[in-house]
Design brief:
mainly alpha; two-stranded antiparallel ribbon
C-alpha cells in the first residue's frame, strides 16, 4: 500500500468513527421511564421481639393512660413492617402508575396486567399484615366528638393502612392512574408523617 493509500484509508476510518459517534448522539437509548419489569414478591414480615418503645411527646403525655399494651404491640409490629417494606412498596406503586400512564392508560399494553398483579399481590400481603394491627389501635372521642388516637402516630398508621387498601381496590378494578392517585398520595402522606416522626426508630 502506497503512502497516499494509507493516508486515504486513515481519513476514511476517521470519518467512520465521527459518523458513528454522531449517530450515537442522535439516537439515544430508549427512555427507561415506564420500562421497569413487574416487581418480585416481597418477603412475608414475621414480627420479632425488639427493644422498641413508643414515643410520648408533650401533647401525648396526658393521653398516655389511655394507651394499652395491645396498642404498643400493634404499633411495634407495624413499625417492623414500615421499616422493612414501606419504601419499597411505595416505589413499586409509583413505578406501576408511571408504566400505566406511559401507555395512555391501556391495561392491555405490554406487561401492564402482569405488573398490576405483582404490585397488588404485594399490597394485599401488606394490608393483610397491617389490618389486625391497625384495627387494634385504641380510638377515643374528644370533647368535640372527634376521633382521637391516644398513641402517638396511631392515626398515621391507621389512615396509611386505609388508603393502601383503597389503592389495591383501584388497581384491581383497572381504574386509571388518576382515579387511584388521591389514595396513593394519601398513603404516601401518612407514611411520610410516620417517617418524619421517627416513631419507629
Amino acid at each position: 500500500m502506497t503512502k497516499t493509500s494509507r493516508c486515504a484509508a486513515a481519513v476514511i476510518a476517521c470519518i467512520a468513527v465521527v459518523m458513528s459517534a454522531g449517530q450515537a448522539f442522535a439516537d439515544p437509548p430508549p427512555d427507561p421511564v415506564g420500562q421497569d419489569p413487574p416487581p418480585p414478591r416481597l418477603p412475608v414480615v414475621v414480627p420479632t421481639a425488639t427493644d422498641w418503645q413508643p414515643k410520648f411527646p408533650a401533647l401525648y403525655e396526658d393521653a398516655r393512660r389511655h394507651v394499652t399494651e395491645a396498642d404498643i404491640a400493634a404499633q411495634g409490629e407495624m413499625c417492623q413492617w414500615f421499616t422493612a417494606q414501606y419504601d419499597e412498596l411505595r416505589q413499586q406503586i409509583d413505578r406501576f402508575n408511571i408504566k400505566l400512564i406511559s401507555r395512555n392508560g391501556n391495561w392491555a399494553a405490554d406487561d401492564v396486567m402482569a405488573h398490576a398483579a405483582a404490585v397488588t399481590a404485594n399490597i394485599d400481603q401488606s394490608v393483610e399484615f397491617l389490618t389486625p394491627r391497625a384495627r387494634a389501635l385504641t380510638q377515643t372521642r374528644t370533647f368535640a366528638g372527634d376521633n382521637y388516637f391516644p398513641l402517638y402516630q396511631g392515626e398515621s398508621f391507621y389512615l396509611m393502612w386505609q388508603h393502601l387498601s383503597n389503592v389495591s381496590g383501584g388497581i384491581r378494578g383497572r381504574q386509571p392512574a388518576w382515579f387511584t392517585g388521591p389514595s396513593v398520595q394519601r398513603f404516601k402522606y401518612w407514611g411520610s408523617r410516620i417517617n418524619r416522626s421517627h416513631v419507629c426508630d
